[in-house]
Design goal:
Two copies of one chain form a homodimer.
Chain A: H1 9-15, H2 23-43, H3 47-62, H4 70-77, H5 80-88, E1 126-135, E2 145-149, E3 171-175, E4 181-187, E5 192-193, H6 199-206, E6 212-213, E7 216-222, E8 229-235, E9 254-255, E10 257-260, H7 263-268, E11 275-279, E12 282-284
Parallel strand pairs in A: 1-11, 1-12, 8-9
Antiparallel strand pairs in A: 1-4, 2-3, 2-7, 5-6, 7-8, 10-11
């Protein structure tokens, strides 16, 4: 038996977990204790700094309600959400890479007809979005579901502005039926800021960071027999691509919105010319 | 510029702190990011485990109010409070060691006359407590303030039971006036449990730990020109000395309550015989 000392602090604490029967929990607690103690020894916080950390974590918990999860946001801006996502979605090189889900997905978004326009508020620059869903051998997947959602021209998702945007604006579920093809109409996304009116915003500004995410579409692409992929497609050339506040960007997920100046094609799409086109192919890995 | 990857995750996140002008804050954030990422890579949490951690921290913040600070309690049971205290109170060998303050100190507790009995609820085994306040050269310190507080026989502090215990039960401030001596009357402390009706209790029980603290008196001893010491004196032989739930025990802070069977001495103290005596000398370091 050993009393607490600076030198052996983590060993003394871990000693109290020796009877933990849940071995996974024991492993997590021991690793957390090691890293927490190493962090404290590295930075040697004053009592005032320690109290600031306590109050910061308390405020973060108290900012959470049924519409806001500030601890997830904190996990996001520290790259923890991106890391947990990456660890849980290690892929073969060919498959589409995953990235963070974010807080704005809606379960059971409406099914859409292929080609439908999901832009219900009429704002923004029209875009025709299309591509294929394939397996890692290059075979098309029919019956694949493409669940898509994005922020509007003002940088907000429909569920952030229930009194402003039409319900289910800029979201929906498309199903591939022929040669793995999908296509629909929407708008070119814009960059936007994460919420900054809580402790996460306080940290972002105190440390000289910015709170912005580069422009992107969100996707969950799934098909029976395949691993679903939760991902984004980022707008090539968007501001903040190199400094996404939540670390979602991966090189393979950046794609170009090409400006098309063609009156007859625009007419077919019920767009004015010029409009944007985005092609992106999804590749799913077998289960 | 580098996009996020499992391999370089912490470097990519730290890159966003390159413009942080507060260098101390930058150092703390970088160390926190390194250790958080190392922890995640070590345990590789599933998405469900990550969500459990998010919800655990959220619940901990939401358990806090003006009377309860669950994040301090979490810091306590992980040995972080003890570590921060130890780091901030490194002492010469001769000086009395510090330990955690705990949540039950009261600012401006009543001044007591030397010898006064601070046991207002009449419960417990009477104890005569005495000793010296000295400097590290062995010289007595007059005018030293001894702020003492303890739990009652049932394991609760007065401020935990405002409707049950007399106000300011088992607490007060004594001032040395002659040869650095102090003496007062109280009761022999009992072990008690930290609050277990929140997330900290959930963790304690899920991991096979116990929530108990060995019996102790709390002290803050201070004098002009000396570094104050926040400490405990533990009861030699108490249960849980070797497994204090908050890691406050240090060998030098354990002292014996000696049973005294002497009618005339007991009469002088207005005690019944036998009663306990505890001698403990405090040694303060010059500023």
């Amino acid at each position: 038996m050993q009393y607490f000392s600076e030198e052996h602090s983590n060993e003394v604490v871990k000693q109290q977990y020796k009877n933990c029967k849940n071995l996974r929990l024991k492993q997590i607690m021991e690793s957390a204790i090691n890293h927490l103690h190493e962090f404290i020894k590295e930075v040697e916080p004053s009592q005032e700094e320690w109290m600031y950390m306590i109050e910061y974590l308390t405020k973060t918990g108290q900012k959470c309600d049924d519409k806001r999860q500030e601890f997830i946001l904190l996990s996001d801006v520290l790259g923890i959400s991106a890391l947990v996502d990456t660890i849980n979605n290690r892929k073969t090189l060919e498959a589409t890479e995953s990235t963070v889900l974010g807080p704005f997905h809606v379960q059971n978004a409406p099914k859409r007809e292929m080609g439908e326009n999901i832009n219900y508020d009429g704002k923004g620059e029209p875009a025709f979005i299309f591509g294929l869903v394939k397996d890692t051998d290059g075979n098309p997947i029919n019956g694949a579901e493409i669940d898509v959602w994005q922020a509007n021209e003002d940088g907000f998702y429909d569920i952030q502005q229930p009194d402003v945007q039409p319900e289910m604006n800029l979201r929906g579920v498309f199903t591939t039926i022929e040669d793995g093809k999908y296509w629909f109409r929407s708008v070119k996304p814009k960059f936007y800021s994460i919420p900054t009116d809580g402790p996460v915003g306080e940290m972002i500004f105190a440390t000289g960071r910015h709170p912005n995410r580069p422009a992107h579409l969100h996707y969950i692409v799934s098909a029976p027999g395949y691993k679903p992929v939760v991902t984004h497609v980022f707008v090539k050339g968007s501001e903040y691509l190199d400094s996404d506040a939540v670390f979602g960007v991966k090189d393979s997920l950046i794609s170009e919105y090409v400006l098309v100046d063609d009156e007859s094609k625009a007419n077919e799409l019920d767009f004015k010319s010029p409009y944007y086109e985005l092609e992106f192919n999804f590749v799913l890995e077998k289960n």
